[in-house]
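@channel sequence for tomorrow's demo:
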Amino acid sequence: VSPDRPVRFVVEGDPGTVSSPTATSMAVVLNELLQNAVEHAYPIDGGTVRLRLRNDGERLHVEISDDGVGLPEGLSLDASSNLGLSIVRTLVTTELDGRIEVSTTAGGGDAGHGARFVLSVQSADEHHLPPAIPGAQIVARPYDVEELRRLIEGD
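structure tokens (generated this afternoon):
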């Protein structure tokens, strides 16, 4: 990106609360997709990259779109030899138990199209929990400071 090709970023929505492993994997995915938009969408002029976020409590929905020159014809995530897109596909579909869709949007830059990536991933990290132990119970309750002191000191 240069001053001759300014790129504006617009972030809309709220990702809500996600687990640490989900946040870490999503940081890699978003970094790769946003970097691709900056590097490839605007060879002549600048434009706008949008990041839309929505969390429905079970899934995090993310859309990254630009108004640039569009995607290479015939681009397929499954057949892509691009290392960055391969990493994105692997993280989304395996680590994040998600889906990713790629499309071209109308009304973009010089070619009349932009790129659009839509992701839907688990926001809760249930697939990373250890397997349940038959008969085990987990009981969680708040303790106050005095109760903790008594437990520690054995009173």
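heads up for whoever presents: Strands lie at 7-14, 47-55, 59-66, 99-106, 113-122.
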